[in-house]
Amino acid sequence: MSSIEQFRHDTRAWLEANCPPSMRTVMGEGDVVWGASQPAFPSEDARLWFERMRDQRWFCPEWPEEYGGAGLDPEQLAVLESEMRRLGCRPPQINLGIWMLGPVLLAYGSEEQKRSLLPPMARGEVRWCQGFSEPNAGSDLASLKMAARDAGDHFIVDGSKIWTSYGDKSDWMYALVRTDSGKPRHEGISLIVLDMRSPGVKAQPIDLISGKSAFCQVFFDGVKVPKSQLIGELNGGWALGKYLLQHERKAMSKFGEISLPSHFDLAELVREYLPQPQGQGELALKARATAVGMNEHAYQLTVQRMGQEARHGDDVGALMAIMKLVHTEQERDKFEVLLDLLGGHALGWESDAFSERQLALTRGWLNSYALTISGGASEIQLNVIAKRVLGLPDGKKGASA
Amino acid sequence: MNLRYNEEQRLLADSARDFLAARGPVAAQRKLRDEGSALGFDPQLWQDAVNLGWSGIAFPEALGGLAFGCMGLGPVFEAIGQNLSATPLLSSVVLGGSLVQLAGNAVQQERWLPGVIAGGLRLALAVDERARHDPVATTLKAVAEGDGYRLDGDKFWVVDGVGADAYVVAARTSGVAGEAEGISLFLLPADTPGLLCMALPLIDSRNSARLQLREVRVGQDALLGAEGQGWALLDAVLDRGRACLAAELLGIAEQLFQTTLDYLKTRVQFDAPIGSFQALQHRAARLFVDLALARSAVMAGLAALDDDRLDAAQRGRLVSLAKWKAGDTAIKVANEAVQMHGGIGVTDELDVGLYLKRVRVAQACLGDRDFHCERYAALGESR
User: Fold this and answer.
1) Would the N or C end of chain B have less CB density within 10 A of its end CB?
2) Do A305 and B4 touch (CB under 8 A)?
3) From CA B15, how far away is CA B25, in angstroms rounded?
4) Domains, in order of start, for chain B
5) Which residue among A267, A319, A392 places its CB closest to the CB of B292?
6) Are B356 and B334 spatial neighbours (Cβ–Cβ below 8 Å)?
């Protein structure tokens, strides 16, 4: 048996022995475990699964052992992931630190930073949040203003971040801050990490049109941040931020695998709410719903095709560039048609006159507006496609992505 | 399901593109149009394509074919779309030839298939009777008479009907329009008494025809397959044709998009290339998105036809998705191509108009967007 076959054999045996059966089922929103200083477990099995995977160093299996990983090579990592998929194992935890900041620290952090920040991250002991967006910055990230002023051995941070997911529940934040307001805007930005329990930090959840949300606005008032917590070079944060955002897609796709409680089957709902379309209006609605479903089908085939092309070593950059736009806009199109399909049943709010699924659909529809705005608004996606993929020339004015 | 051409199919795509760019480019189609060609295609070009093996791509090796499957037809039809080349590959081989191969008896196969594959004979399929595709509504009557049949009725829009050597005619031997049961197929040589073919000139300047059948008396030997049982094979073969048209539409759309993109980068207005204007950039980006989705759907439609694990409904659904998405995308791209080219876009001098006209014909042929949207839904519910 070759060593990789041996590894597959051992991995399968370990997962079968150690992954509790209840951790091999599809998970809902309430089942997510977040790695944190005081993690909350929805069940005893979830705690067991978390601890066993942690002790196996499989929260970040491909990281070097000295930083808390298991040092798996890409082939072994692929085996582990495929075996977990085969068994239907839930991710033992979700951790923005590992998925987003970790790769940046591994590439650009100092040895001291790697040794102090990575191992606790790898054990799932720290919950991280992201501080990039700011009020008024919108899609133009580089216009950020939150200042980190040089005060000898530390910075003094003043300002505010917005759209920080779980800012009120996180232990640490990685943030882009302005360290030189005299320089061109991309060149005066630095990446820092900070303790959310530092004096002067205040996180406030934001209510959305869809109701309660995980998003927070975080306020910073004279917060002291040691200079040892500057990642990479002073005023070199823009490149690191871009590097970090490249990992966002990967993180989002992992997140998407486990938590899609608002997934609605269009064809099934059409059968339920429009079993026998009568008259022009209903026939037109049925045709509209079919077209939305067909575009969704074409998108799923495109995801499949991209996977096949990537495995063959084809360049899939152009396909990657359209995915976020297509998926989020299709979600909105789908909710539009579902809203018409369910009529008044899709317009209820916190009432037992509506089924749980109907209420979830209403919120899903309202939430779908955020999808085409966050993580690069549709207009930014279109700019990226036009310029980077199609090679269309820059305008004299306007956003450059 | 494989959604990517393999090496063999990529080579085929390259050779088809090179061959047509040299022998059947848009300029050649324009010339055929200007000369008022009755055939609508260049017989020598077709013979050369046959010599390259195109007529044998989807046929089994026992018949002298290449056994590349329907996926193998994809690259050729994409190249046909890119170059706007006219050939009877769809009518004679994919539609007529497939029906004779799948439904014909030994005598019929022997009589027609070798000639079809060698290019010396040409078949055409006569299905539609009205302006919009609706094959299950076939009403052309075939009444049992003596030991044969008498056929009466009219067919509209027979692809490459002018000059065909024989016609496969869908007729109704029982039942009423809308019923699958009772549709029969007949194989009628062009010189059958009572059969009259008339040219039907369409905007794409290709070969389209109407067929008139008046007291056409034929024997049992004219029946292709079992009486009243023609629907399943007819629909399966129409799906082959639809998938090929979808590939052609994709080829056209990608070519037109590239032409338009080049224009956006070079045309200067208000001291800037017009492609630097965000209003146009976003519209171009949206077309690119549609093209990517259309390619995935077309690949799935072609692959489905070769996939034995799927049933007819599953195949039909993927083919309808392909034809729907490719047709819809090609129309959007063609409309934008004209608009973005501005004034020159509406002149006959520019090739864009030739592509636009072919798009509308190919999109409507064998089922337009609405037809395939409805069929996709119906096939989903029948499961």
Assistant:
1) C
2) yes
3) 14
4) 7-90+110-118 (1.10.540.10), 123-224 (2.40.110.10), 231-381 (1.20.140.10)
5) A319
6) yes
